[in-house]
Amino acid sequence: MERKEDNRGKKSVFVASCLMNTNNKVMGLARYSGMCKEVFDILADYGLGINQMQCPETLYLGINRWWQTKNLYDSYGFRSFCRDLAKQVVTYMVEYERQGYETVAILGCDGSPTCGVSITSWDEEWGGSPADFDYNKAIIEGSGVYIEELKKEMEERGVKVPPFYGLALDDESADMDTILSDFKKFIEGIM
Fold first, then answer.
1. Considering only CA atoms, which of 70, 170, 68, 168 is closest in space to residue 122?
2. Which ranges of the chain would DSSP assign to H, the alpha helix?
3. Residue 18 and residue 166: Cα distance in Å, rounded?
4. SS3 35
5. What is the pLDDT of residue 127?
6. pTM confidence score
7. DSSP state of 138
8. Using CB atoms within 10 A of its CB, is residue 19 exposed (0-12), middle (13-18) or buried (19+)?
9. Crossing angle for the helix pair 37-45 and 176-190, nearest 10 degrees?
10. For the segment 101-135, what is each residue's pLDDT rounded down to a tens digit?
11. What is the pLDDT of residues 7-66, one digit of tens each?
């Protein structure tokens, strides 16, 4: 018996958990109330499926965790935890790929110590007793711990590495219209 074809587009993106559910963000950094609807409207306009990746920070430390920079998360235990989560995501990609589906992008949240794609945070003065630090002074170029482990897992398993894109939604000073316009251009460029 032949399988009936349907309307699926066979293209999807994997997205950082906090883009679909801001409740996973560390307290004080939520820019929108639930999900960044505009981002998902753009994805829907291009017929893309959405796979939500789990939030390593929430699963590891919970909702009420302190703000942390990458150097605080950059430990063997947390990297190992992130690698285990990455293995699950890559297994999805492998299964999709086996059936002719394509993962067209991975969306992270720039500025995040775990899911930042091109911008993360690092500050040697963070650590020890919680103190009032300026998170914006800790922003640096680079990827977060989870994104690094996800890329390594994909490369080690021979999975085609799609483009990664970091949405700068943690920066309240960034213009949302510019963020969305740049994102739409990115999506147009990969389709």
1. 70
2. 17-20, 37-45, 56-61, 70-73, 76-98, 145-156, 176-190
3. 12
4. coil
5. 79
6. 0.90
7. G
8. buried
9. 30
10. 999 999 999 999 999 999 999 988 887 777 777 77
11. 889 999 999 999 999 999 988 888 888 888 999 999 999 999 999 999 999 999 999 998
∠ CA(108), CA(140), CA(178), 5° rounding? 55
Say how many residues make up the chain: 191
| pLDDT tens track for 153-179 | 999 999 999 999 999 887 777 888 999
Is 137 a residue whose pLDDT tops 90? Answer: no
Rounded CA separation 106/187 (Å): 11
Q: What's the Cα-to-Cα distance from 24 to each of 56, 59, 62, 151, 168, rounded to whole Å?
A: 10, 9, 9, 22, 16
The Cα–Cα gap between 15 and 19 comes to 7
Strands 139-141 and 102-109: unpaired
Distance CA 141, CA 190 (A): 23
Give 142's contacts (C-beta < 8 A, 6+ positions apart): 70, 116, 118, 119, 120, 122
> Which long-range CB contacts under 8 A does 24-33 form with residues at least 24 apart?
24/55, 24/57, 24/58, 24/63, 25/170, 26/57, 26/65, 26/66, 26/67, 26/68, 27/63, 27/64, 28/67, 29/67, 29/135, 29/170, 31/169, 31/170, 31/172, 32/169
